[in-house]
Amino acid sequence: MADASTSGPKRIRWQVNLIGSFRVIDLANDRDCTPSSRKACGLLAYLVGRGGRAVPRERLAGLLWGRSAEEQARASLRQALCDIRAATDRDEPPVVADRHHLWLVAERVRGGGLTHVREEDGDWRPFEDLDGLSPEFDDWLAMERGRITEMIVAETANWVKRSLAHGQGAKLVPLIRRLQRIDPLNEDFVEYAMLAEYQAGHVGGVRQRYLEFVERARHDLGVEPTKGMTALEEQLIDRLTQDDAPAAAPVPERDGVLK
Q1: 41 and 86 in contact (C-beta within 8 Å)?
Q2: Within 10 Å of residue 208's Cβ, how many Cβ atoms?
Q3: Long-range contacts (CB closer than 8 Å, 24 or more residues apart) made by 211-220
């Protein structure tokens, strides 16, 4: 079996969106190269999850075509691989194969996170349109969604914290709203949202983010916001309503935030 690390030039060519609808983007020209076959998309999604490790053809055939006869399942796998190559690039595809295995050419592919999700996507789950390909695939997808969500949220939250610490909140407002869409009851995300609105100079935005959380916490959990969150909201609004408050004020000191 060939080593994926030697399978072509070491440059990122393809982006596979991990959140929302499954999409493959050619970064060379920003073209949508998503295969039309849902099972070809499922095959590529699974190989992305394997991160470049080789997967036996038998396992892939069983995962997506387990209820077909063995020969038919193998033929369907070959067709799905052809569909991926036809939709992307036959000379530099994101997936390669030998007689016994398929694998992702990992150095050609990156995952797209929250900054690449489309507003029209439904609930912003990972690979949200790939349910129902097979019972075996659905079992894998349920576990993979948990792993991807945890990874994407942690990476994005860490980046947001660093950016807020450098006073870049004005450009972070839409991204933080996306974090909140995934986990609307996460108090850290609410605080990030208020801080971003504060750095953007939006008094109404600070208040709105706070009130949205208060309403959801009361409705979903039957609880009130913490004293610390209420104090932060009051502090931010107080600073922004001072006559000499700068348009992009620095982050106030707050225990537990941005540490």
Answers
A1: no
A2: 14
A3: 213/184, 213/185, 213/187, 216/184, 216/185, 217/185, 220/185
The Cα–Cα gap between 257 and 174 comes to 19
34 within a domain of the structure (yes/no) = yes
CA distance 59 to 65: 10
Number of domains observed in the structure of the chain? 2
- How would DSSP label each residue in 149-200? HHHHHHHHHHHHHHHHHTT-GGGTHHHHHHHHHH-TT-HHHHHHHHHHHHHT
| The one-letter amino acid at 156 | T
Q: Which pLDDT tens digit goes with each residue over 141-187?
A: 999 999 999 999 999 999 999 999 999 999 999 999 989 988 899 99
The angle formed by the CA atoms of residues 196, 245 and 175, to the nearest 5 degrees, is: 10
Q: Each residue of 12-52: pLDDT tens digit?
A: 999 999 988 999 999 999 999 999 999 999 999 999 999 99
114 in the same domain as 228: no
Q: Report yes or no on 258 lying in a domain.
A: no
Phi, psi of 135 (to 5 degrees): -60, -40
Name the DSSP letter for residue 218. Answer: I
Same domain for 229 and 116: no
Rounded (10°) CA dihedral 133, 137, 140, 145: -10
Q: Where are the beta strands (DSSP E) in the chain?
A: 14-17, 24-26, 31-32, 55-56, 95-97, 101-104, 109-112
Would you mind telling me the total number of residues written for the chain in this entry?
A: 259
